[in-house]
Design a protein that fits this description.
- The chain has 7 helices and no strands.
- It has 190 residues and is mostly helical.
- The chain has 4 domains: 38 residues, no CATH class; 55 residues, no CATH class; 36 residues; 26 residues.
């Protein structure tokens, strides 16, 4: 049994028990009893208050769509139309002597020229940035090789605990090793 059918049954029972309902009040009854269910269910049968989901999100989406079309798409369309109608594509002409064209002057469309001139980097600048990246990576590789060689020598000689930690000066350790080797050579291993 749905909520509305139970409300209708309750409103009908309340109207019969009271002897007067909405219609009695309209007919001029002195004392009419109104209930929320009787008011909500008054009218033709089948006409009742329908609960529907909110359409607020849909209306908000439409508002935002219209806003961004007005703010973004319309000005962009006007700029594109202006540049195509009044400026037009570039035409090839001979390059004058003693003049080096800029990198954006090689583009045909005016909007593309604008983007290359004010937003993007030139191909030469991108190439030089890439070369600098390769140089930095090469320097890092050389430093890693040097570090590996240092650790190898430290392991062979055993004169340092680590290349970044030096508890004593190494010259005394080397001098002690040399004197120990001389002593072993003079006296022997016994």
């Amino acid at each position: 049994m749905s909520v509305w059918s139970s409300l209708r049954a309750a409103a009908g029972a309340a109207g019969r028990a009271a002897g007067a309902g909405v219609g009695a009040a309209a007919a001029g009854g002195s004392r009419a009893k109104f209930s929320v269910s009787a008011i909500a269910l008054s009218g033709a049968p089948g006409n009742s208050f329908r609960i529907t989901p909110s359409r607020w999100q849909w209306h908000k989406f439409k508002d935002m769509l219209h806003y961004y079309v007005v703010v973004g798409a319309i000005p962009a369309t006007l700029i594109i139309l202006y540049s195509n109608i009044f400026i037009g594509p570039a035409e090839l002409t001979p390059i004058p002597e003693n003049y080096t064209p800029k990198y954006w002057e090689y583009e045909r469309h005016p909007i593309t020229r604008f983007i290359y001139r004010y937003i993007m980097h030139s191909a030469q600048q991108d190439y030089e940035k890439y070369l600098h990246y390769l140089y930095e990576e090469n320097e890092k590789a050389l430093l890693r090789q040097l570090e590996a060689q240092i650790k190898l020598k430290m392991g062979e000689r055993g004169d340092y605990q680590a290349y970044y930690y030096r508890p004593v000066t190494a010259k005394y350790i080397r001098a002690f090793k040399e004197s120990h080797e001389e002593t072993v050579n003079r006296i022997g291993d016994d």
